[in-house]
């Protein structure tokens, strides 16, 4: 194998070029700890954080930025449209020791875009570039931008934005290969991502969208020329994907993902991290969405998946897990199951 390509965000050198994308409600500290322990992850990014709420000291927002010594390197993704709050939030995050600040220009959800934030920033080029430049100048840590190809198919502005962002000091851009109008529907436009890659001179462009396997990542690299790949939904179905990608890049081969009992062990470990972070009384409701993803990927019978959603206490949830452990998968065996993938629901991921 040839030398493994490296990637840097300014002075921040990443250990691999495989990144965990921010997904609201999912890529929190407990999940990041589980994924990092499996290996291969180059950079994780938090759930999107409201810049104004962060500056105002919102307890819920501050919890989104929670981290621990092994959760590194970590970028915090902020959203907003107000210069003061964005720059102040970036300064506070730098002061708290975070490695990088990422600006969200990709969120398609109406409650975000109607405030002028998220993907709607792509509708105001000069104003947005000036806003991003202010954030870049306010901190010493690398500032990056996550965006979509554009607002809709008639406004594919990402290449022009990427070129302008590079000129004002942005360290990298990540591109989700859909427009705001698409949401998560339709297909990723890898040619659109390639146009962004070709628009910049030096900064890394990270490809994102519909990467659920090593083969998908290979296609993304080959067809776009991107420097790295960011994975969100694919990591929910297969938390081993970053280790697999790192193995593939180093040796040309990779181990299969964990089997049924490995996944059950991950679920239990992540749940314990949630208890540590939020306390026993808040842990079970918080973990329901994530448990659903785990159990569906494990081919747990629908009746037991439903029963897990009805648990209200740690003890009740553990009892359901004990039943699941005894019952095993509904399809395949404990060590030989179909590909562990989960169909992507429609609508914003916050509603999954």
Can you summarize this structure?
This protein is α/β, with parallel strands linked by helices and 352 residues long.
Describe the model.
- There is one protein chain.
- This protein is an alpha/beta fold and 352 residues long.
- The chain has 2 domains: 7-251, TIM Barrel; 260-327, Non-ribosomal Peptide Synthetase Peptidyl Carrier Protein, Chain A (Orthogonal Bundle).
- It is built from 15 helices and 11 strands.
- The chain has an 8-stranded parallel beta barrel, surrounded by 6 helices. The chain has a two-stranded antiparallel ribbon with strand order 1-2.
- β8, α7 (158-167) and β9 (172-176) form a beta-alpha-beta unit.
- α1 (29-38) crosses α12 (260-278) and α7 (158-167) runs parallel beside α8 (190-199).
- The longest helix has 19 residues, at 260-278.
- It is globular and about 60 Å long.
- The mean pLDDT is 93.
| SSE topology string | EEEHEEHHEHEHHEHEHEHEHHHHHH
Helix % is 40-55%
Strand order of the largest sheet: 3-4-6-7-8-9-10-11
Task: Classify the fold: give the CATH topology of the largest domain.
Answer: TIM Barrel
Number of strands: 11
Q: Report the average pLDDT across residues.
A: 93
Q: What would you report as the Rg, rounded to the nearest angstrom?
A: 20 Å
How is the biggest beta sheet arranged? 8 strands, parallel, barrel
**Class based on secondary structure composition and strand pairing:** alpha/beta
So, CATH architecture of the largest domain?
Answer: Alpha-Beta Barrel
Integer count of domains = 2
The span between the termini is 40 Å
């Amino acid at each position: 194998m040839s030398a493994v390509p490296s990637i840097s965000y300014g002075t921040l050198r990443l250990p691999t070029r495989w990144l965990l994308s921010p997904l609201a409600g999912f890529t929190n500290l407990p999940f990041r700890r589980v994924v990092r322990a499996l290996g291969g992850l180059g950079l994780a990014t938090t759930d999107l954080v409201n810049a104004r709420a962060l500056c105002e000291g919102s307890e819920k927002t501050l919890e989104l930025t929670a981290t621990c010594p092994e959760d590194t390197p970590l970028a915090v993704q902020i959203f907003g449209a107000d210069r003061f709050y964005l720059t102040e939030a970036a300064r506070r995050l730098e002061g708290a020791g975070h490695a990088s600040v990422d600006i969200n220009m990709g969120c398609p959800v109406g409650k975000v875009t109607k405030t002028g934030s998220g993907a709607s920033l792509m509708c105001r080029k000069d104003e947005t570039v000036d806003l991003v430049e202010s954030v870049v100048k306010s901190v010493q840590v690398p500032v990056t931008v996550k965006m979509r190809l554009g607002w809709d198919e008639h406004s594919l502005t990402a290449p022009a934005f990427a070129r302008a962002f590079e000129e004002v000091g942005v360290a990298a851009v990540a591109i989700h290969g859909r427009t705001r109008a698409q949401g998560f529907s339709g297909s990723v436009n890898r040619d659109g991502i390639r146009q962004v890659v070709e628009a910049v001179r030096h900064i890394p462009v990270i490809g994102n969208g519909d990467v659920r396997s090593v083969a998908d990542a290979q296609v993304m690299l080959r067809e776009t020329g991107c420097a790295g790949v960011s994975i969100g939904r694919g990591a929910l179905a297969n938390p081993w994907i970053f280790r697999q990608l790192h193995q593939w890049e180093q040796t040309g081969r990779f181990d299969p993902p964990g089997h049924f009992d490995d996944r059950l062990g991950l679920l239990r470990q992540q749940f314990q991290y949630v208890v540590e972070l939020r306390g026993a009384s808040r842990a079970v409701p918080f973990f329901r969405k994530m448990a659903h993803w785990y159990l569906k990927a494990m081919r747990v019978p629908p009746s037991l998946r439903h029963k897990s959603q009805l648990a209200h206490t740690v003890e009740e949830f553990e009892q359901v897990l004990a039943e699941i452990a005894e019952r095993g998968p509904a399809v395949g065996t404990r060590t030989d199951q179909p590909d562990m993938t989960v169909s992507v629901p429609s609508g914003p991921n916050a509603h999954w």
